[in-house]
Amino acid sequence: MTFDDMRFWGQGTWSDNTFCAWPQSKRQHPMKGDNCGFLGCYFNDDGINSMHDEFFAPMSAEVPAILNLAREEAPDMAVSLHSHHVAPVPVCPVYVPQEIKHDIKQLSVNYAKIMKRHNLPTWKFEYVYEKGKVPPTFNLVSALYHVSGAKSFHFECPHGIVHEDTPTFSMDDILEMQLGLYEAMMNYELNDGSK
To answer: CA-to-CA distance for 195 and 187, rounded, in angstroms?
Structure first.
């Protein structure tokens, strides 16, 4: 898959057939109107990106279903799987207590150790704070914590595209990165965060 294929199928197009690149693809919500072309898979059929729905008055059917399940099941940890063009990384959640951010930082350290065993790289975990001229958005990961208490985060894994500025990972590498994440999550919960 090429970078342009990923942009078309993932983020979609505007009505003039230009790509809805990030972050512009998240600035109009829902993605409806005369300026919208093809809806990529970021969005449901109504143009709503569940990661960025209106959580206090959801516009989509998917978000209440996800939040109700989290509320009922009360998981210890929850992950939202995403993809990007570089090495994998658990991403710091926002609008959650510092302790949760520290938990995900430690999970990231543990994950990096697992990836090192497989000779695979990781991207550096960075703390994100709720401040600045353009603060981070309250998103599905934030909402998951607030309805269930779960240590919630989103995980960025390489999507495997071919692009000149992108490291190349095989499908086996990407599978190992995903399985390594689940190993790190299970070890973290079973060992109180110590491994």
So the answer is: 6
Instruction: Give the pLDDT score at 194.
Output: 62
Backbone φ and ψ for 84, nearest 5 degrees, come out as: -150, -170
- Cα–Cα distance, 118 to 93 (Å, whole number): 26
**Burial group, residue 102, by CB count within 10 angstroms (0-12, 13-18, 19+):** middle
Query: What's the token pair of residue 28?
Result: 């109009």
How close are the terminal C-alpha atoms of the chain, in Å?
A: 36
Could you read off the pLDDT of 8-64 as tens digits, one per residue? 998 899 999 999 987 777 788 899 999 999 999 989 999 999 999 988 888 999 999
Of 128, 125, 107, nearest to 180 by C-alpha is: 107
pLDDT at residue 3 is higher than 80: yes
- pTM as predicted: 0.90
Contact 43, 12 (CB under 8 A): yes
21 membership: H or E segment, kind and range: none
